[in-house]
Write a structure and sequence with these properties.
By secondary structure, this protein is an all-alpha fold. It has 5 helices and no strands.
């Protein structure tokens, strides 16, 4: 696999790698592995949450508030840019809404 960076991006990467005391290639590899691990962990957590919701298992609003979560964030659209493309409920379940609607599997 090849990754193409602009000269500015390469300079930033070199600066960060120098501060970390690592070669840029090692830093890139470690960062990619961390991203993959984080993505896998997130998807598993969402799948567990969806399974619990489907089973009717929910936590009380007071418990959410104690954990520091607002029961109704003022603007959920503000979080939309942070959801990677293709991360919908069907994608996380491993199904495709088009297939499900058409009866295909």
């Amino acid at each position: 696999m090849e990754v193409h960076l602009t000269p500015e991006q390469e300079a930033r990467l070199s600066r960060i790698a120098r501060h970390a005391g690592k070669p840029p290639e090692q830093l890139v590899t470690e960062t990619i592995l961390s991203l993959l691990d984080d993505d896998e962990g997130f998807r598993l957590a969402v799948q567990r949450g969806l399974a619990q919701a489907d089973a009717g298992i929910f936590i009380e609003e007071e418990e959410m508030e104690r954990a520091g979560f607002s029961p109704s964030p003022p603007n959920l659209q503000a979080f939309a840019p942070y959801r990677p493309c293709g991360w919908g409920r069907d994608t996380l379940r491993g199904t495709n809404s088009n297939q499900t609607q058409n009866g295909d599997s």
